[in-house]
Amino acid sequence: MPHIDLKFYPRGLSEEATQKLVDDLSAVLINHLGTTDKAISVMLTEVQPEAWKSDVYDPVIRPALDQMAKKPGYTL
């Protein structure tokens, strides 16, 4: 049951572009994990740049740096 929780700066994506993003992410999981589309859930959260440190970096990224498969190339 893969779940993606993607947080990103607002991009003004259209509904069509958002669906394409979700479809592409799902296709990667299907391809690499051998899962099915019905097993996948995706959460997309737009985070304002000024809230990134308090809402994402400090509570989510910083505590998990040692476990991350890809670490960010920045620190806050």
TrEMBL record:
Residue span(s) of domain 4-oxalocrotonate tautomerase-like: 2-52
Keyword Membrane tagged: no
Domain of life where this protein originates: Bacteria
Key words, A-Z: Isomerase
A GO MF label: isomerase activity
A Pfam match: Tautomerase
InterPro entries: 4-OT-like_dom, Tautomerase/MIF_sf
Protein name in the entry: Tautomerase PptA
Species per Swiss-Prot/TrEMBL record: Rahnella contaminans
